[in-house]
Design a protein that fits this description.
Layout (H helix, E strand, L loop, with lengths): L4 H31 L2 H27 L18 H28 L3 H31 L1 H6 L9
Helix pairs in contact: 1-2, 1-3, 2-4, 3-4
Length: about 160
């Protein structure tokens, strides 16, 4: 099925964002793991995998519309050095994604591509959930301070 070029470009732009997010979240997860924040690292790693699933469905849709998924392009990966910086960097990716997804839904509906619009709406729901999580974590850090917040993210090793 031949898709609208503007819709395919929007799908590719969101694919670029998802590929960027995969890298950013995965790097943050590995850094968190290295710092000993194992509970946080598990959650962040799972977020990276969620973004991978988004990239997969976007790729499938682009191919279905006879477009070419662009895996060669990435946006800027923002790397935080502290947990607060990591959350703020991850939040920025989500803010940008939510704006892009909303604009995409509008365009796709105007072009009568309801399936692509529904795909974007599904991803939008996930991103809104993630930004809510990040906002909650940033509020907890503000209330508790980073040291106390991080004390809750440490997981003791199990016995050998």
């Amino acid at each position: 099925m031949h898709g609208d070029p503007e819709v395919i470009e929007f799908l590719n732009e969101q694919l670029t964002a998802e590929l960027t997010a995969i890298n950013q979240y995965f790097l943050h997860a590995k850094m968190q793991e290295n710092f000993g924040w194992l509970k946080l690292a598990k959650y962040t790693r799972a977020e990276s995998f969620d973004e991978m699933r988004h990239a997969e469905v976007l790729t499938d849709r682009i191919l279905f519309l006879e477009g070419l998924p662009n895996y060669q392009r990435l946006f800027h990966v923002r790397v935080g050095q502290t947990v607060t910086e990591m959350f703020r960097a991850d939040r920025q990716i989500e803010v940008e994604a939510i704006d892009r997804l909303r604009r995409g839904v509008e365009l796709m509906r105007a072009k009568s591509d309801i399936t692509s619009a529904k795909l974007f709406e599904s991803i939008l729901k996930d991103e809104e959930h993630h930004i809510d999580y990040l906002d909650t974590q940033l509020e907890l850090i503000e209330k508790l301070g980073e040291p106390l917040y991080l004390a809750q993210q440490i997981e003791q090793p199990s016995e050998a």
